[in-house]
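Think of the structure tokens as a kind of shorthand, similar to the way a musician reads notation: each symbol stands for something richer, in this case the local conformation of the backbone. In the example below we present two proteins back to back. Begin with the first one, reading the sequence and then the tokens, and try to describe in your own words what changes along the chain.
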Amino acid sequence: MQEFSIFIAPLLFMFFGLVTYLESDLPHRRLGYRVLSVKQTVETWRVSNKFAAKLLLIVGGILLVIGVFLNSYFRTLAIWELIIINLVEIIVMALLVVGLTEWRVHMSFDKEGNRK
């Protein structure tokens, strides 16, 4: 059972990406990519959340494939190794999603939330 714990983080990322993509048309209080720079207008909210959701789906899928590779070739991973792999996946995902989404918002909108 512990060898399948390597799939927890990628599957959660993909689930949250799908939910965020489907529900990202209007700003929510609890759901989505919520940073001050994207809360200015509904358009910045929509664009940033669609982009972040796509990133979650894509990178979650890539991490899932990497997890399949690791699970098939390294069946004897210890619990601490699985925890480290999941933590690295979470950190990589957070840095990618936040960094790339902020870059996208910065390239698409000015400081007031108007399209460039």
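Once you have a description of the first chain, move to the second and do the same.
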Amino acid sequence: MSQKKLFISYSRRDTEYVSTLVEALRKQGFEVWFDKNIRTGTDWDSTIEEELKKADAIVLVLSKTSVESDNVKDEMSFGIGMDKPVIPIKIEECDVPMRLARKQFVDFTTMGHEEGFERLVNDLHIGLKEAETAVPKGTFKPPKQKKANPIKNYIMGGVGAVVLILILVMVLGGEDAEADTTSNAEWQTAINSNTVNSYLNYIYQKGPLDPKYKSAQDSIDVLMEYEGMVIYGDLNSRYFVKNLYTDMNGDLVYEQDDEQIPKKGDIITALTPSQIYNYETMEPMEGLLLEPGVKAKVISVREDDQGNVLAILNFPDN
């Protein structure tokens, strides 16, 4: 019997969680597709539509950001309109869309992620008219949730914060302990925001000697999940500004340097709405623009016959 095909509809903020979910579903014998499978240069809308048509069922991941996503709403409506089984799962507290209010969903927030996953698998088998199967314990282990900074609660207490800092200074060695506490709080702020800008700000403040420096770079890379080409500039104009460049050691260094052509690893920011192209066909990728202020990471650079500087980039969701 051929594998049943699942389409996962989700918000990109939940990519880490969904990637783990996809892996667990594949271990249960499902063929799973989600938009990280889209090859660079393919037409986004047509690929999504094609995969929705091929899917036997749709798993809709409900979170605070996905219920606000127009793309997720479109995918949900398309699936319901094609009369395919749509299985919603709620992975955090959020407002369930009106079209799903009367539809039973698997609430991972109350059932727990392991029991919720077992229920999801069984609901999929029921929706696909297949026999239910036992799900081994521990098949689905979601990514660990980032813990809130324990110092923060004391800070909210006012006087308690002063006492805690004094204790840390005395026990851990005065100024060094205070510096470590500040650094940890700033890193916690960066990961709580989980944006390119929050990690870049951390790099700006701390520099390459900070122990979290490499982690900040890695986190930026995870968020830069898309790939395409832009016109960086021509002989007379620049459409981007360089925010970070890589030095001889491969480290990111903060310096706005607009004169030098960027190289691999540099981080640049769009100054104007910039069309994204398929770097193989040179055709515009319909509906895809880098908006002003959005940062991207350079993969490679070349010049065309007209003197345009072309940069292949990784970039985040606008």
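Compare your description with these statements about the second chain. The radius of gyration is 23 Å.
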